[in-house]
């Protein structure tokens, strides 16, 4: 959709990427009663169009991706699927990726092989297509991925009535069936708190600080004062003594090097070296 053609649907929040020289255009619509916001999408390859929004749930959030990979472009989905290891995601779009896992009658192409190999490295995300064609000529071009924990409460369907050359796809998520998120471990050991010291620290802050006129700054100052008082008067908890199996040498630097090695291995699978 171009900038000079405005589309409005009452009671929906519109997130639009206009059609342009380097974009086919895309749109995500969210019911206005559902809190949502636009986020910066992960890089999916040069010329691959990606749009992302965050839907704010009661106890968490869900990042929804809208993807279009033109046939001649090369997909780079490492960063995209890595996001599924950090938060809940739903990824849908036209990937132009062909693999027998997606559709047994299709012809394998490089993007399909790369995408299926990549999925084995990310058990946190699952392809939920049923194998039913998503194109009127019989191809399965449109794929839907969701966080694996959503699989038991998700349903994937093709809508035969909403169509152009592609059929519309629906993915209901029965959110009420999801188990409640576990409570985070307590940060402070209140049983050992020195409440007299805590009160004295807050009283000291109040006596020497001039309240800010800006309400946001006042809120931030007061929050910092509470944090400072708690750190001096309430000991921290130690919710677990569990170590990494290689805790005696494992640290952030080792973790980063492991990440780089795994990323390089995935890169080699996508772009095999010509050397023996």
Account of the protein in words:
The structure is a single chain. The chain is an alpha+beta fold and 276 residues long. The chain folds into two domains: 12-180, Endonuclease/exonuclease/phosphatase (Deoxyribonuclease I, Chain A); 190-233, no CATH class. The protein has helices at 78-82, 110-121, 195-208, 215-233, 252-270, and strands at 12-17, 26-31, 36-39, 49-56, 61-68, 88-94, 125-127, 142-147, 157-163, 167-170. It has a six-stranded mixed sheet, with no helix packed on it. The protein has a two-stranded antiparallel sheet with strand order 1-2. A hairpin with a 3-residue loop joins strand 9 (157-163) and strand 10 (167-170). Helix 3 (195-208) packs antiparallel against helix 4. The chain is elongated and about 75 Å long. The two termini are 47 Å apart. The model has no long low-confidence stretch (mean pLDDT 79).
Number of DSSP helical runs = 5
Major sheet details: 6 strands, mixed
**Quaternary organisation:** single chain
For this structure, what is the CATH class of the largest domain? Alpha Beta
Radius of gyration: 25 Å
CATH superfamily of the largest domain: Endonuclease/exonuclease/phosphatase
Low-confidence stretches: none
| Strand order, sheet with most strands | 3-4-5-6-8-7
How many strands? Answer: 10
Strand content: 15-25%
Helix share bin: 25-40%
Note the run of SSEs as H and E: EEEEEHEHEEEEHHH
Global shape: elongated
**Helix-and-strand structural type:** alpha+beta
């Amino acid at each position: 959709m171009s900038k000079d053609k405005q589309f409005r649907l009452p009671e929906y929040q519109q997130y639009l990427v206009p059609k342009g020289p380097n974009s086919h255009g895309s749109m995500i619509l969210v019911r206005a009663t559902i809190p949502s916001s636009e986020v910066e999408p992960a890089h999916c390859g040069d010329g691959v169009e990606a749009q992302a929004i965050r839907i704010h749930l009661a106890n968490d959030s869900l990042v929804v991706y809208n993807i279009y990979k033109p046939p001649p472009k090369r997909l780079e989905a490492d960063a995209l699927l890595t996001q599924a290891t950090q938060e809940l995601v739903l990824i849908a779009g036209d990937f132009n990726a062909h693999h027998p896992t997606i559709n047994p009658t299709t012809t394998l192409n490089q993007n399909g092989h790369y995408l299926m190999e990549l999925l084995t490295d990310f058990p946190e995300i699952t392809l939920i297509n049923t194998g039913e064609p998503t194109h009127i000529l019989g191809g399965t071009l449109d794929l839907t991925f969701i966080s694996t924990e959503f699989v038991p409460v998700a349903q994937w369907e093709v809508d035969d009535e909403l169509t152009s050359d592609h059929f519309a796809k629906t993915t209901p998520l029965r959110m009420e069936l999801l188990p409640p998120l576990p409570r985070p471990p307590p940060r402070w050991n209140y049983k050992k708190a020195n409440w007299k010291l805590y009160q004295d620290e807050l009283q000291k802050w109040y006596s020497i600080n001039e309240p800010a006129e800006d309400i946001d700054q006042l809120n931030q100052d007061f929050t910092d004062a509470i944090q400072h008082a708690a750190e001096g008067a309430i000991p921290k908890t130690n919710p677990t003594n569990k170590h990494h199996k290689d805790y005696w040498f494992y640290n952030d630097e080792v973790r980063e090097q492991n990440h780089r090695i795994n990323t390089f291995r995935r890169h080699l699978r996508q772009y095999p070296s010509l050397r023996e």
